[in-house]
Amino acid sequence: MGSDTLRRVFEAGSVAVIGASGDPTRIGGRPVAMLTAHGFAGPVYPINPNRDEIQGLPAYAAIGDVPGPVDLAICAVPGAMVEDVLGQCAAKGVGGVVVFAGGFAEVGGEGVEQQARLTAIARETGLRLIGPNCMGFANFGRHLTASFHPAFALQMPAGRIGLVSQSGAFGGLSSMMAVERGVGFSHALTTGNEADVDAADCLAFLAEDPATDVILLYLEGVRDGAAMLDALALARANRKPVVVVKLGRTEAGARAAQSHTSALAGTDRVFEAVFRQFGAYRANSIEEFYGIAAALAVGGLPKGNRAGLVTVSGGVGVLMADDAAARGLDVATLPEATQRKFKDIVPYAGVNNPLDVTGQILNQPELLDTALRLVLDEADYDAIVGFQGAALAATGADADRNLALWSDLKRDHPGKFLCVAGMAPPAVQERLEAAGLPLCVEPTHATRAAAAGAHFADAFARPPGWTRRPSTGGASTLPSGPLTEVQAMRILGAAGLPMTPHRLAVTADEAVAAAEALGLPVAMKIVSPDILHKTEIGGVRLNLASADAVRGAFAAITDAARNRAPRAAISGCLVAPMLTGGVETILGIHMDPVFGPLVMFGLGGVLVEVLEDVSFRVAPFDDGEAHRMIDEIKGRAVLDGVRGAPAADIDALAAALATLSRFAATQADRLLSVDLNPFVVLPRGEGAVALDAVLEVRT
Amino acid sequence: MGSDTLRRVFEAGSVAVIGASGDPTRIGGRPVAMLTAHGFAGPVYPINPNRDEIQGLPAYAAIGDVPGPVDLAICAVPGAMVEDVLGQCAAKGVGGVVVFAGGFAEVGGEGVEQQARLTAIARETGLRLIGPNCMGFANFGRHLTASFHPAFALQMPAGRIGLVSQSGAFGGLSSMMAVERGVGFSHALTTGNEADVDAADCLAFLAEDPATDVILLYLEGVRDGAAMLDALALARANRKPVVVVKLGRTEAGARAAQSHTSALAGTDRVFEAVFRQFGAYRANSIEEFYGIAAALAVGGLPKGNRAGLVTVSGGVGVLMADDAAARGLDVATLPEATQRKFKDIVPYAGVNNPLDVTGQILNQPELLDTALRLVLDEADYDAIVGFQGAALAATGADADRNLALWSDLKRDHPGKFLCVAGMAPPAVQERLEAAGLPLCVEPTHATRAAAAGAHFADAFARPPGWTRRPSTGGASTLPSGPLTEVQAMRILGAAGLPMTPHRLAVTADEAVAAAEALGLPVAMKIVSPDILHKTEIGGVRLNLASADAVRGAFAAITDAARNRAPRAAISGCLVAPMLTGGVETILGIHMDPVFGPLVMFGLGGVLVEVLEDVSFRVAPFDDGEAHRMIDEIKGRAVLDGVRGAPAADIDALAAALATLSRFAATQADRLLSVDLNPFVVLPRGEGAVALDAVLEVRT
Question: Which domains does chain B have, with CATH numbers?
């Protein structure tokens, strides 16, 4: 539904400019001038009560006076008049309004209330509102420029990159890069304060837009986490790469972001996890942001991560191999027979991968042809990067031969990602890119593009993992109030999580009986809904190997609790068998204000804490996604068994993570946190078990 | 000495071209053409037995026929003739020869021997040899182009960047970037196979060259590690930033490098440590390599790492803050009074840092002036980055005003690093850079340059740390043969390293007496020069708390040794007190084939092994450098005390590392390895102690 109403706006056939000016340099004049100059095909209605004609077009006193229907109104009036204008637009049946004016939520105070009134009008009338405090948007295919940003005045080449930006300036800069580089946009959508239409809406629109192949997403914060997850999932389902810049990676950045944007910033680690889980690629500079999108829009996606490198310089070849490998590409060696074939031609060539044709290329230009054909025909690489140095700068017959070679290769191998690196004049770049061959001056940008392509190929090839959080009808089944560990273990155990065998003992005799039933030695812990840190008050005893020891421990623990936490309600002692072996891990649920429940995973131990070596995923997800979050931690090899330890039961661990994620998703409306620490993963085939459970719920 | 002879070559006043050709497109013709076209002031002597005149110059049949002295001979003849030519050059008293021809060590087999003969001629006669298999060099200040690479035919703007490259193609590419970007080189020196002159020689030359401020170093491998350390130390002492690309970061890269270069590749981790210790900055792309050097050559060095950011776009401001902080810059907030001053002008501006002048700049262009002056005058930033979006693309009065603003600021604050970010036409860039203001299109490249500047400021501000390895006259004082742990502890203890108290017991009674003297409980270990892995054969017992336990352990350990290692010579059992508390670390010596002894440091435990969280330094070094290597590990916070543990005695740890480094440097010629594992760092004030010592020496 939302997408349909947005489509009417972003694909508008008729446009009114409210507050239109006859001066094409003014904010109210620029949209009229750009719509006219760029050749927008539909009617443009300038609205200005003081003029009959504006920039050669008949002007109207008010939006209600326009004779035909209006899909889009561009509102260039001061902030104080916006509310009134929106009302008039709604009455006229306008599809949507772009509001440039600032002074709303971004300035705080009354601005927040004024913006809330704009939102209310949009929600009540169905009018879509873009902004306020935004630079509007441009639909380059329709020559529809609903902006005053000078970047949009430039002639954009037709392109298949769609841009969503919460920052107008960032959107403008990216557009200027696109114009300069010559790989253009389908749409550039800026969202400003997002009183109605937000970045998730725009992302969802582009994910379904037939004119868009690759999506650029510039985010400062997310208002509606669920909608953003849906939009990211949609883009992925439609196999559209999403390249994202999200600000606030560092503390300094987060502080700056807070003072800049009114969007809820959220934790950067959570965003990082979301991007990873949904297959988005995170860029850290404007150049990388646009560069990746341009390369993939031109060259398409590879099918996998095997990269073949061909070079005319050994040094640059090694540089590319380093960069490719560091980015996760498989720089697999050429088949030996292929290596021999090239060695027969150039005995001192480097031939494993990269294939280095050497300076011999100066004497035998056809060597490049031979090398590329060998690499493409005889090895199963998904992506090929060819570094040509300054050879592309040649003109005349040499240039034509070179271009013909690359074009032929792309034609013969349409499913492979072919990327050219080297220095080339704009005309050569244009011809290469028209044939589906992105050109990068910097060789590592070519390997970076291949790696980004492989990243998307991998993301699109695997099942989604995540499913939309089920609506529980608002009713979590969790009991209220603080829960004891015994209650937590019962609830989580019932949800399918493996809990250590245990009994609650209310007397010392019961404790002894429990210990003997469970098998000595045992551990004992105080059970109280009011005591969270049991060890600190002396409420935990381990390795109790005899009935006497159990009896003594019961007395000691309950005494300690009475003395150190005199007001705590004591349920008794939990008795559980001691467990030896296995790898200690930590499983948890973090409730994120933006994205809801996230599952956390890490190894146990103080060093993991210091190194923050943990991974996160949005709930709920399946076992495959759980395996990926396990594989993501740096200490992953510990689970494979190091220093003679057996490999751990990673399947059992993954199953527990997925189960925990489903539990969290189902109970999200009442859940505060879950902490299974330690969660011991036993040797392969023996499963895993939580030795401790904390479950916090809303009271 | 070496530097003087090289200076004669690189600053040659007279040049002969051996194998000169009349065709300016041929390898033997290009140097003649370039020397003439670029305006080299000294005599150029073409040598060709078949011609009287070449490209308008009188030609000579042989180098011996040249009437005047010859500082430099460019040798463009085929490989087979090179040996003969070198002999003739030596006889003539030529300063040095550049040899282009390949087919020497890089092709293996006979080529290696042929190259060895060239080296011998150079060593015997004092003739300096550059190459073979190189692209020569260019001294742009003297218009001296001793190369055939087309990049050197381009008109290089005068510049203060010196380049050393082991790859001719890489050197050529960097030169083309310099020409395109307009920030030029003093020298471009390529070294090829390094039969005589190597990268370290060239680096040392540039470190002393008055025309060079910033050095670019492209390395594939290092032949003479000691010379490279000396050259890096010299560059640092002379406050010249060294930006380095070293290939082989990844396994794929190392494999490719091996097939490409005949230099000894060495371990990448060791190179990384050397660059860090000597203050070089490692770049990972050609763009970064040249970009950092260009920015620092234009803008000079900041004094420290405090960065102030000014922006016309909030989003780009946050992007820069993130990048700056991630690179270690201190994005300190503006003084509150300064923040208030700007808030008084633009109430909704972001003012902590970055200072975001907002879109209001469109209405009040003078806001940028105000913002920059506030940031420069009222806060003590070392570097300022100003993002101007597309404003620099303006022409006419606006452009002039903008340029004048920046020039004034730089003039008023000559000691600060000022960098402009945004899109600008070449003419604007040229004017900014002439005034000492580097311009970066990509905003994060500006923060990156400031961070690199801060990196060098820090490196140049601290004492060197490293000292050249003392010459021991070839006589290490270490005993020969395999050493027992007791011997290792005695030697290392005598060197000043803290060893746990211990006694060697040859009988069970001696063991009991030792345990009682040292204090129970004790640990016991088999002592044998032939048993390295004591635990594996049952040769270690811990926590022995009584005389009986000690007696039993002695029997068990010696029995185990006799059974499991029947041929090992057994010295007895080492008895040492059990130690509780402290942080377990590992100290070691790694003998690197290129750079000699390196000290390794890491925390104990399996996770450190999995994460490879260790640091290295070239020996010998002082306590300050030791502190830096301690601070470098990711798990550093463990030493500060986590989860209630006390802070460890880091000064004692640093002292031990420095002591170990001096020991290794003094004993380098006989030492194979040292391993102190665990080396326990006790709480602050209590010192540190090695519980185990392994010392391997050459037999």
Answer: 3-295 (3.40.50.720), 300-461 (3.40.50.261), 501-577 (3.30.1490.20), 583-697 (3.30.470.20)
